[in-house]
Amino acid sequence: MIKKVSRHIVQNEPLLFELSSPGKVGYQLPELDVPEVSAEKVLGAEHVRDDIEDFPEVSEFEVLRHFSRLSTWNYAIDLGLYPLGSCTMKYNPRVNELVARTEGLAWAHPYQPEELSQGCMEVIAALEQALAEITGMDAVTLQPAAGAHGEFTGILMIRALLETRGNPRKKILVPDSAHGTNPATATAIGYSVENIKSNDRGMVDLAVLERAVTEDVAGLMITNPNTVGVFEENIRKICGILHDKGALVYMDGANMNALVGVARPGDFGIDVMHLNLHKTFSTPHGGGGPGSGAVAVAKVLTPFLPSPRLKRVNDRWSWNYDLPQSIGRVRAFYGNYGVLVRALAYIMAHGGNGLRQATLDALLNANYLRKLLEPHYEIAYKAPSMHECVFSDDRQAKKGIRTGDIAKRLIDYGFHPYTVSFPLIVRGALMIEPTETEPKRELDLFADAMISIAKEIEENPELVRNAPHSTRTPRVDEVTAARKPIVRWKPESKASLSPAAD
Amino acid sequence: MLDVIGLKSEEDLVSYLPADVRFDGRLAIPDGKSEYEIVDYFREQGARNASGYASFLGAGVYHHYRPVLVDTVVSRGEFLTSYTPYQAEISQGTLTSIYEFQTMVCQLTGMDVANASMYDGSSAVPEAAMMAVRITGRDKVLIARTVHPEYREVLHTCTQHQGIPVAEFEYTKSGTVDLDDLAAKLDNETAAVMVQSPNFFGIIEQIEELSSIVSRKGALLVVVFTEAVSLGLVRPPKEADIVVGELQSFAISPAYGGPYAGIIAAREKYIRQLPGRLVGETKDANGHRAFCLTLATREQHIRREKATSNICTNQALLALMATVFMSVYGRQGLRELAQQNLAKAHYLASKLDLQFDAPFFNEFVARTNGKTPEQINRELLDEKIVGGLPLGRYYPELENCVLLCATEMSRRQDMDRVAEAFAKETRA
Hints:
The complex is a heterodimer.
Chain A: H1 16-19, H2 39-43, H3 60-71, H4 94-100, H5 103-106, H6 118-135, E1 139-141, H7 147-164, E2 171-175, H8 181-188, E3 192-196, H9 206-212, E4 217-223, H10 235-244, E5 248-253, E6 272-276, E7 293-297, E8 309-313, E9 316-320, H11 337-373, E10 378-379, E11 389-392, H12 394-397, H13 403-412, E12 419-420, E13 429-432, H14 440-459, H15 461-465, H16 478-483
Parallel strand pairs in A: 2-3, 2-4, 4-5, 5-6
Antiparallel strand pairs in A: 1-7, 6-7, 8-9, 10-11, 11-13, 12-13
Chain B: H1 2-5, H2 35-48, E1 54-55, H3 68-74, H4 77-80, H5 92-109, E2 113-114, H6 121-136, E3 140-144, H7 149-159, E4 166-169, H8 179-185, E5 190-196, H9 207-216, E6 220-225, E7 242-246, E8 262-266, E9 279-283, E10 289-293, H10 300-303, H11 316-349, E11 363-367, H12 373-382, E12 385-386, E13 389-390, E14 401-405, H13 412-423
């Protein structure tokens, strides 16, 4: 039975371009306090455009109503559990939004004089310090814009260090359970990728690893807890195997929500790792970004951190560009500063003990769901779960229902699906991460929904196969979208109009 | 809940971890603070910054007015707290707005296709270079010295291990790219020629002419922009093969350097070489128009080491800010906004001694004539004005020059004071 949701009226809405009428405006500019100039005269007629053809012409209220209506077609963490494994969809505290808009911070120009930027720099320094403490690493850069960008930064530093030792080496090892960004990153830095097969417990197979680590290997990219939500219990040995051959260990910190306050990568041998501030540290996902991919390093890699670095000079912060061994810049300015402010606010609100408690609560929620679902779905690996649990669709596949179908049926029950078909080493994976911020009531409703779907699959698999049934938009044809891509509106487009225009 | 799991305490959830990896200490982070204390801390940090100053800094980050609607829209939890729209049935709001964003980016730049946004303008530059390398099968990249210095640094950092040699070419006394130097360096192995317009000095480049020089050698022309407001008035770079840029000007706070929203747009035939996320139009099971992420086979989660890029996230919420901004200003407003920027900058420039004589939009390079840029800026700070960017650090040959920017927010009286500071004798 569907308990959590009932249907309600949803507004339709055309595209902005279809709403437009000539001459309509939604803006006001002040009177110019300087003489007008003729663009043709100062730029030359050849440099002036006639018009921005087909650009929107709508009123202010129409803009507001347009985007408000669009927003109601979205699911969001504010509306309910969003159990996307590996994405850590937790509550985004609103105080973070407020402080990120503090005028002196939000309006700060990256090139304004350092004496007028001390507040901004203090925030960066405070966050770097807190993240170094949380990871047990030596230093942190906040420059990378996102997780994959952090990976890029980290592997580049590994390469730079190995070059100073005379040989950058050729290969990066990546477990077959890794996120797709890991192999893509290694390739972007000129390394070939060798996949390491996981053992039957979903962990790195030490024997396989030992054989793979040669003098050609620059490093290993490992996720811990790994993508099946299991802590790599041999992590110290793994790091030792790499270090013995002069190679380094990169940790993908996507799953750091399982470790904060409980275990520190710097303590167990990791050389460099990234943190997704938009996962572990609660900054909003915003429909796909912005993120921030802070990178923490052990001492051996600090000389290679991106330029510039903060430096304390005479009781004042200053940017230091004199870093001869730095890999250089990975982006302009100092990073996604607005995201950094939010992450620091999150850390301040929790404090050291609160951060650890949040981790324990995340583990509790994941293991609670695992226990409720285990009788109905096949757990992928028996090892204890940390912050997420991964099932396979083995039992349901016997009825012809796959993980993707179950995911779509969850939508009818008022939930966003879990992560579908990842990690690739689990057949038909259902990867579920509830996070610490979900109340028990929401977890119970989710478990009820999953159990109810398991029953539906037994009794009426078609109901599940054709889901969702209650959304404004039923399943969409992704195949046609990819075969004949239409990625922009054009005035002549005669696409079958949405209900809005009927 | 513990009973259900069969544990006695939450500590049992981690007690099985090997003792030599468990952290049993206390994190050296102060105890949790109340909401009020947090607000107060950041207010204090903000107050230590340049609050209440007029600013004439540009150089890739611009002070433009942010219409109130922008924050109203992006504060809606349905946009703020949703994930990447992989589940199309419950993500049509985000998908539709990205489709509108992609369309408006095309309309502005004169390109056929645009993706769902990039991290920022600077990181879009190496992505465009790598895209050109894939398309042409060549490996060399030429970039103008008039492209933002930090963007060029990012290009060097990102291409160094990919077998992509990067060389720079010069600018003329007028401040435009040096076509002779370009012609001398351009050869049959050049994959891409990258220029910025308006360039770092604010000057508008001759895109048509550049395009014919570059295409004759079979290379691709990549045009970069940092000041998106210019596109309201300046002819779009429609002869380019790829356009990358920064939309910070469209209602994204300067925020000490980020987060911003980059764009990459290109000609239709290059669509399958675009990096990052892309939203496409399709139909739902009822035959109605619907949108979904598309061409995912380019992306890392499918292609892994063979992906076009390792990019995973985009800047959806910032792209939404830009989309709301573009909708509020619209066809007429963006032009009027650009016209105001042009008028303000030319008013200020008319009172100063300019280094270059080519046409510029809202930024220009002024000579300091006898004083150092630092002296002038020091005097201006006393009047609560942040002056322009001294160029010596980036261009040693321009050590007595300042890059100044005026926008619709620059007041005449402040511009007059800037002009006075340039004119008057140094105080003893």
